[in-house]
Specification:
Keywords: Membrane, Transmembrane, Transmembrane helix. The protein is mostly helical. It has four helices and no strands. The protein has one domain. α1 runs antiparallel to α2.
């Protein structure tokens, strides 16, 4: 398991983790989860074709978890409505916290 498929999956996993960890907003985090889904699928294929069933099984479960993240951050109508109402308040609070730190 050291071919181009694994390298693509590994690099994609690192980028997705950075997008989620950066906390740059719901859309960026949601796209991080989309990327996690793509690389999880890649790891499943790599695990099956490379006779590494533990990797394939783990990433099949992670694919489901990451798909739920996509739903929560990008697709859920309820969460979209909540975030639309929270964004102006969150921006004000963020400015207040920044002012306190000065």
């Amino acid at each position: 398991m050291d071919g181009p498929l694994e390298w693509i999956a590994a690099i994609g996993t690192m980028i997705a983790a950075a997008l989620v960890a950066a906390d740059l907003g719901r859309k960026v985090t949601g796209w991080g989860f989309v990327l996690f889904c793509a690389v999880s699928a890649t790891w499943v294929v790599s695990g099956i074709t490379g006779d590494a069933m533990p990797i394939a099984a783990m990433n099949a479960i992670l694919l489901a978890i990451n798909a739920y993240g996509v739903w929560q951050y990008l697709l859920s109508p309820k969460n979209k409505k909540v975030m639309d109402r929270l964004e102006p308040v969150a921006a004000r609070i963020e400015r207040e916290v920044e002012a306190e730190e000065k």
